[in-house]
Amino acid sequence: MRTSQLLIPTLREAPGEAETVSHTLMLRAGLIRKVAAGIYTYLPLGLRVIRKVEQIIREEMNRAGAQELLMPIASPAELWQETGRWNFYGKELVRFKDRHEREFCLGPTHEEVITDLFRREVRSYRQMPLNFYQIQTKFRDEIRPRFGLMRGREFIMKDAYSFDQDETSARVSYQKMYDAYHRIFTRCGLTFRAVEADTGLIGGSSSHEFMVLADTGENTIVYSDTGTYAANIEQAEVLPPPDMDTEVARPLCPVHTPHCRTVDDVTKFLNVSPAHLVKTLLYSTGTDTIAVLIRGDHEANEVKIQRFLRVTDLALADPAVVERVTGAPVGFAGPIGLQHVRIIADHAVKALRNVIVGANQRDTHYVDANWDRDFQVEQFADLRSACAGDPSPKKDGTLKTTKGIEVGHVFMLGTKYSEAMKASFLDLHGNECLAVMGCYGIGVGRTAASAIEQNHDAKGIIWPYPIAPFHVHLLPLTQSAHTATITAQLYDELQAAGLEVLWDDRDERAGVKFNDADLIGAPFQIVVGDKGLAEGVVEVKTRKDGVKLKLPPAHVTAHLLQRRTS
C-alpha cells in the first residue's frame, strides 16, 4: 500500500488530551481519532492492527472448539431483570426506551443474551459441551473514560460463554480457554502473566486475569519470588500473622495530638512506627456505616471489604457522616466508645498490642489501646491489600509486586445465570439440570494499546511482528528513475513473499520519512537512495534494536523472511 493512498495523519507533538504512552502514540501515529470522551474512530492503520488481533483470537478460539456467532448490542430489559443486574449494574449500563416505551440497554457484556439463547435452543446433554464467542462492540458508560483505548466507553471485545453438564466438565472448558488465552497473547508478541482475580460485576466462583506486564499499567500484580502464585492485588490473599504480640498490656492513655489527622502526622508527632497505629476507616454501604480497622502501614482493600460485607455499594463515609458518628472531624476516628457502628478488623490488627487509635475527639488520640480490653471487634478477616514482603499464601516464597494491564479475563460462573434464567437441559437419565457456565473476555483495542505500552521508545511505536499494521516500511529517498525502479521491484517481491509493505511514495524530505517510519513502528524499514544504489545496496533497519544492514536488493526478501520469526 502506498502512503499517498492511505489516511495517516501523523502528528509531530503529543496532543494535550493524551495521558499514557499508548494514547499519545496512537494519536500521533494516526491510528485513532477521538469522537467523544471514551469513543474513538479507528483510522486505517489502527484498524489493521485491530483486525490482526481479531484474527489471532478467531484462530485460537476456533482451535479450542468455540463457535462464533454475533449477538445484538441492544438487549431488552426483561433479560437483565431476570438476573437482577438491571439495577445492580449501576450507571455504567446505558438504558433507553424504544418508540413503544419498551426498555432496552446497550450491552456491556452478554451473559443474559447468551443464556437466553441456550435455554431456547438446547434441550439435551447430547448437545453439550458448548462454547459460543463473538467479537463485537460494547458500551459501558465509564464515570471517567481515560487513557485512550485502555478505558473507553465504546470498545471492541471478544466475549465467549461455555455451557457444560457439571462442574467437572466446566473446569475442562475453563482450562481450554485458559490455554487458548496463553496462545493468543503469546502470538500477539506480548509479555504477560495470568493472575488470580476478583469476579466483580460478572460474578461467579473464580477467575483469572491476563495481565500484560508494563510499568505504565494501572493494575498492581503480586507474585511469589520463588513459586507460581500470582494474583491481582484486589484478589491476593494475605495470611494472618503467625504470631501474636506478647507485649504486656499497658494502661490506656489519651494524648493531645494537635492538627495530626493522618497516619504520617500522628506517628511523626509521637515518634513511633506506622505499624503501631491502627486507623479506623468509616465506610457507607448505602444503608449502614461500618468501621474497618487497618494497621497504619497497610492499605485497606475495598474489593475485599465489599466482598466480606456482601454489599454492592461501598464508599468512604463523607465528612458529615464521620462527624455525626464519631463526634469529631475526619482524622480522629477510633474504635473506643464508637456507638451503633459495626466494627470489623484486618487479621494484622488482632496480633497487635498497645496500639495508637483515634479518640473520637478533635486533636486527641489514645496510646496503648488493646482490642480485647478497650474495644471489641465483631470479626477479623483479610481486609487489606497484599504488599511486597508478605509471605506467599501458597507458602512458596515471598511476594513481590509489578504493574500490569488487564487484557483478558476468564470466569467460572457456575449456575449464577442459568439458575436465575432457568437455563436447563435433560441429562442421561431424563433429569432436568442447570447448565454450568463459564465466560471469557478479551479487550481487542486494549490488547493493541498494551502492545504499545510494552513496545515503544522515544521515537515511537515498535510493533510486535504479528500485529504490526505493516511488516515493512519502504522509504525511497529520491524521485530518481533508478530509485523508483528498485523500490517498485522490492515492493512487488516483498508482497509476493507474503510481507505487507507500506511504500512511502510522498515527495518529502528524508527526515520527515524517517520520523514517520519510527513513529508508525513497522518491524522493518528499507531505505532506498541513490548513494546506496551506486554501491549496489539498500539499507535494512530493524526497528526494535535499530540494527542497520546494507544488502543487495536481491537479498532483502530472504533476509526479512528469516528475521520475521527471530
Write up this protein:
This protein has 17 helices and 31 strands. The chain is globular, with a radius of gyration of 29 Å. Helix content is 29%, strand content 28%. The chain has three domains: 3-237 and 400-453, 2-Layer Sandwich (BirA Bifunctional Protein, domain 2), CATH 3.30.930.10; 253-381, YbaK protein (Alpha-Beta Complex); 470-563, 3-Layer(aba) Sandwich (Rossmann fold). The strands form eight sheets. Strands 3, 7, 8, 9, 10, 11, 12, 21 and 24 form a nine-stranded mixed β-sheet that branches. A five-stranded mixed β-sheet has the order 16-14-15-17-20, with helices on both faces. A five-stranded mixed β-sheet has the order 28-27-29-30-31, sandwiched between helices. By secondary structure, it is of the alpha+beta class. α2 (44-63) crosses α13 (444-454) and α14 packs parallel to α17 (553-563). The model has no long low-confidence stretch (mean pLDDT 94).
